[in-house]
Amino acid sequence: MFHLLLAVIYLAFISLGLPDALLGSAWPSMYPVFHVPVSYAGIISMIIAAGTVISSLQNDRLTKKLGTGKITAISVATTAVALIGFSVSHSFIALCLWAVPYGLGGGSVDAALNNYVALHYESRHMSWLHCMWGVGASIGPYIMGYALSNKQGWSMGYRYISIFQIGLTAILIISLPLWKQFQNKGNTGQPDSSSVCTLPALTLKQIFQIPGAREILFAFFCYSAIEQTSSLWASSYLVLHLGYSSEKAAGFASLFFIGITVGRGISGFITFKLNDSQMIHLGEGIILIGVLAMIFPFGKTIALTGLILIGLGCAPIYPSIIHSTPAHFGADKSQSIIGVQMAFAYIGTCLMPPFFGIIARSIDITLFPIYLGVFLCIMFFMYETVIKKTHIV
Questions:
Q1: Is the pTM of this model over 0.90?
Q2: What region, left, alpha or beta, does residue 187 occupy, with left being phi > 0 and alpha being psi -120 to 50 degrees?
Q3: Looking at residues 125-142, what average pLDDT do you find?
Q4: Is there a contact between 321 and 341 (Cβ–Cβ < 8 Å)?
Q5: Inter-residue contact 215 to 337 (CB < 8 Å)
Q6: What share of the chain is helix, strand, coil (3-state, %, to 5)?
Q7: CA 211 to centroid of chain Cα atoms
Q8: Each residue of 179-194: pLDDT tens digit?
Q9: What SS3 class is residue 253?
Q10: Looking at 47-51, 257-261, 275-279, which range is the least confident one?
């Protein structure tokens, strides 16, 4: 049952990643159809992120009431409906409306499954879990590229992904008894989940008063700014700065997610030797190299390599911060804190990619790697402060 449930959780994270890169890869083909500026991708991204913030903040209460299995099934079903809505939209306003359930579904499943794995599974499983997200995020642009290359249009790309989500919803509904059986039989040595679930949810004020909590929230904000700005604007950067066609850029943009996917697969094995903090430092160093490769004018090949390196660097950071949450702040507080961490991550998603859209339109899209570098520096100093305040190295 342990491994069967883990396989279901992995599938759920593949489904979480599939839609994440679709907007960025499809947008160069979408915005001329809707007669809106290229920067309007930031508006849709902001609405999706706002939905995820709301659902993440409510996740602790909903999970205690319904359980992780039901929350996951409902969330995936909500995302499937939203993707179908995207595929049949004929106006920018319609896209904005469907972006609401799009975001609400993603935030709930993200926070619920992250805490579940942090409590029940070892660090390598957290890395591999997020590797599965990378699998989905890498496949998504290829599916969209396939639809565009075969003249099926971006709407068919969204439709393909929605079909997968519908199938996964059915699997999750069938698997609901597994969640109860696993909880009743215990776990792998982490704190008892049944006792944790009976504790009241912490308020935002209580969370902010925990030493190191504010810093870890801002570290998540910065990480999300790096990852989601790369996701949304890499394709446009390749088209507008490096001169690639929209079709090729959609495929090349997936290099970032391939870097995340491969990196998280490898990170699962590296965690046998390095702890969570060391994994985070390793990722920050690799992102720095990737940013520098894109800043200096070494040509298209080096720039594409830099994009892969940024993905590789992102790979261990997110799962390592999540997995270390019970160690830094206690298992009794992890569900509440992880929910707010997700919210801050999505606030970063909500604000920072659209803000770069303003920079790209007003100044130049060539500032893309410099923008990422600024948030990398802030994230580094925030996490170092967390280590000092919690005394967990």
A1: no
A2: beta
A3: 82
A4: yes
A5: no
A6: 85, 0, 15
A7: 26
A8: 776 655 544 444 444 4
A9: helix
A10: 257-261
Other CB atoms within 10 Å distance of the CB of residue 19: 25
The Cα angle at residue 31 between residues 24 and 159, in degrees rounded to 5: 60
Q: What count of residues does the chain have? A: 393
> Which domains, ranges and CATH numbers included, belong to the chain?
1-184 (1.20.1250.20), 204-391 (1.20.1250.20)
- Burial string for 184-223 (b: 16+ CB within 10 Å, else e) reads eeebeebeebeebbeeebbeeeebeebebbbbbbbbbbbb
CA-CA-CA-CA torsion for 328, 329, 334, 338, nearest 10 degrees? -70
CA gap 393, 387 in Å, rounded: 6
DSSP class per residue in 88-157: T--SHHHHHHHHHHHHHHHHHHHHHHHHHHHHHS-HHHHHHHHHHHHHHHHHHHHHHHHHHHTT--HHHH
Report the C-alpha gap between 282 and 289 in whole angstroms: 11
pLDDT of 285-324, one tens digit each? Answer: 999 999 999 888 888 888 888 888 998 999 899 889 988 8
Residue 141 and residue 253 in contact, taking contact as beta carbons nearer than 8 Å: yes
342 in helix, strand or coil?
A: helix
**Cβ–Cβ contacts within 10 Å for residue 91, how many?**
11
Closest CA to 287 of 279, 277, 276, 297: 279
Residue 318 near residue 346 (C-beta atoms within 8 A): no
Query: What's the pLDDT score for residue 383?
Result: 94
